[in-house]
Amino acid sequence: MDVDLNRPIILYMHAGSGNHGCEAIADSSIRMIKGIREDNDVDTKLPVILATNSAAEDRRYALGNLEKLGLCTIAEERHMDRDFAAHVFYYAYRKLTGDRESFLRYRFQDVFRTYEAKCKKSGYSPYERGVAGHRPLAISIGGDNYCYPEMVPDLILAHSMFRRKGFATVLWGCSIEPKSLSDKALLDDLNAYDMIYAREPITYKALLEAGIDHRKVEFRRDPAFGLGIQAAGYPKGFIPGRTVGINLSPMVLERAKNPDLVKKSYTNFIRYILDNSDNSIALVPHVVWPSSDDRKPLSDLYNEFKDTGRVLFIEDASARVLKWYISCCSFFVGARTHSTIAAYSAGIPTLVIGYSVKSRGIATDLFGTSENYVLPVQDMEDPQAIINGYEWIMEHK
């Protein structure tokens, strides 16, 4: 990161560590900030506030330890859907005034209170130009948030709110579908960032072609490529170097043209590994939110093969521990982007079951092409597709 970090920082649009990809980005970014500050003799006590959808999730995993070490302060956003009176008041207020940002000011109210208190305690001005004459910094860290059209309006409003409060702004480690850049509101929003870091070449090229100033766009790998590993004990049946890791998500099934065929392809692949090798199979969930829990489709696979004694289920753990398990595999098939980043960065042959620009772009960055490395779930028509992908990668690993 080339942005000057000698100023107070808020990291925002972090959805919570129940999505271990979100955790991996936040974990890596917070440690990166500390490292860069130390290397540049910057005061490491400058506030770093992590605005989160769920403080409980973050403290359950690795980010809670970073908070205890003083590397960040976790501040939970307010949830209007849990406060009926606030919901009625702000809905009426917005109707009467047209002030669309009011919802976001309510959402981040406690975050700003925490930020102001930390700045005051550390002797820094929260909103005025302070350290080295810089404005405070707000970094949007939800890497693929702009890939989801339903999230874009709130992303635009949150960004506008931070700018109005005097923050310089950075969009960090992003992927954006090129076709979405025809939307003027989105393009105006992106142009307003002080710096954008695209995590793969498809997004980087699309941003430049859409007219974003090349001086404020940089191509840099996803921060989670630098995530460390935390060793853990092997579950029964896990054989290091002789275990194939598998991740499947509800999200990828929702985006499939034929979800049953995708499930069949996974089933056929597991049966193929069991019949043609002595490898075990490790089912690895990477998101455990009730609304999108990898353990649900993975449990279906487990129940089908549990009697073989060679298929095991990895329990929920922090992103670093999950990366440890993935790094011990002989091969990995992943639907969640950050499960595959864990595999890529550990040097594990990997087949991606993808659905968006992020999986295509990251594979293109690594291999020069996404062909044979990514199976677009929208195009899967062959129940042998994962077997075929596995065989190709193993021949070229």
Question: Could you please describe the fold and organization of this structure?
Answer:
This protein is of the alpha/beta class and 397 residues long. It folds into 2 domains: 9-226, Rossmann fold; 243-396, Glycogen Phosphorylase B (Rossmann fold, 3-Layer(aba) Sandwich), CATH 3.40.50. 43% of the residues lie in helices and 15% in strands. It has 16 helices and 15 strands. It has helices at 20-39, 55-60, 62-68, 84-97, 102-107, 109-122, 152-164, 184-191, 201-209, 250-254, 259-276, 295-305, 319-327, 337-345, 357-367, 385-396; strands at residues 9-14, 48-52, 73-76, 137-140, 168-174, 195-198, 217-219, 243-246, 280-283, 288-289, 292-293, 311-313, 331-334, 350-354, 374-376. The protein has a 7-stranded parallel β-sheet with strand order 3-2-1-4-5-6-7, sandwiched between helices. Strands 12-9-8-13-14-15 form a 6-stranded parallel β-sheet, with helices on both faces. Strand 6 (195-198), helix 9 (201-209) and strand 7 (217-219) form a beta-alpha-beta unit. The protein is globular and about 65 Å long. The model has no long low-confidence stretch (mean pLDDT 93).
